[in-house]
Amino acid sequence: MTGTEDLKEQLKKLNARATKLKMDLYNLSDNIQVCCELIMDVV
């Protein structure tokens, strides 16, 4: 592979990783909201 092809491949991998992390963060924020609601129900 050339340097340009290597960089394109790295960029694809980083974009995929960023998308996965963004979705994980979104799911975490949903879980935090549910947990807070459960805590308020207990209180």
Description:
There is one protein chain. With 43 residues, this protein is an all-alpha fold. It has one domain (1-42). Helices cover 93% and strands 0% of the residues. It has one helix and no strands. It has one helix spanning 3-42. The radius of gyration is 19 Å and the shape is rod-shaped. The model has no long low-confidence stretch (mean pLDDT 92).
Secondary-structure content class: mainly alpha
Q: How would you describe the shape? A: rod-shaped
Low-confidence stretches: none
* Count of DSSP H/I helices: 1
Biggest β-sheet, characterized? none
The string of secondary-structure elements, in order, is H
Strand proportion, as a percent range, falls in: under 5%
> How many β-strand runs?
0
Helix amount: over 70%
Radius of gyration: 19 Å
Mean pLDDT: 92
Query: How many independent structural domains?
Result: 1
Distance between the termini: 60 Å
Topology:
Elements: H1 3-42
